[in-house]
Amino acid sequence: xxxxxxxxxxxxxxxxxxxxxxxxxxxxxxxxxxxxxxxxxxxxxxxxxxxxxxxxxxxxxxxxxxxxxxxxxxxxxxxxxxxxxxxxxxxxxxxxxxxxxxxxxxxxxxxxxxxxxxx
Amino acid sequence: xxxxxxxxxxxxxxxxxxxxxxxxxxxxxxxxxxxxxxxxxxxxxxxxxxxxxxxxxxxxxxxxxxxxxxxxxxxxxxxxxxxxxxxxxxxxxxxxxxxxxxxxxxxxxx
Lengths: 119, 110
Prior knowledge:
The complex is a heterodimer of chains A (119) and B (110).
Chain A: E1 4-7, E2 10-13, E3 19-25, E4 32-38, E5 44-51, E6 57-58, E7 67-73, E8 76-81, E9 90-97, E10 108-110, E11 114-118
Parallel strand pairs in A: 2-11
Antiparallel strand pairs in A: 1-3, 3-8, 4-5, 4-9, 5-6, 7-8, 9-10, 9-11
Chain B: E1 4-6, E2 9-13, E3 18-24, E4 31-37, E5 44-50, E6 55-58, E7 61-66, E8 71-76, E9 85-92, E10 99-100, E11 104-109
Parallel strand pairs in B: 2-11
Antiparallel strand pairs in B: 1-3, 3-8, 4-5, 4-9, 6-7, 7-8, 9-10, 9-11
């Protein structure tokens, strides 16, 4: 399967600061990437779809001004949590979908995640 | 909207079979998946089943789908310590978005 990396793997920041999380597709070019948020003992919740060269598509209830997504190249998407607060503390995971076609066309390859703790 | 539910915890003795269950509400799902999440690692696709199938077997893994009851299960035969992880079922309908279940934490008892 494809290799997806995230950086950093964990970050601790003060309330009010901004944090940038990178997601890289190492094996193939990705026009689309997904950003998820996972709370302890809860499922992954899709936050937004990152589209290369265009605006991200946000899920209902996700503040686009707070969670800035930039997909500047076919291998890199970044999620910036602006003016972070303790309630933003969570595990953020990105994924890269297999391109369309074939029986596994909906398979997604996941990054290892970034744990954000806001003090 | 879609809703996918799982039991949060399952404990199984090493060597026994593990059965992880999942129920979903979206009857238009085309694919159903099982993902495994180990600490510090990304989610890994274990197996998937197309919605017109009843069963799929892949080595130690057996997936059963009851479309009428919207029930999906994953059976792991001869459970090993390396199977300890959180298992997520997920569903999709002809699109790239996945809806995940709440996850089941599988603990292996020596």
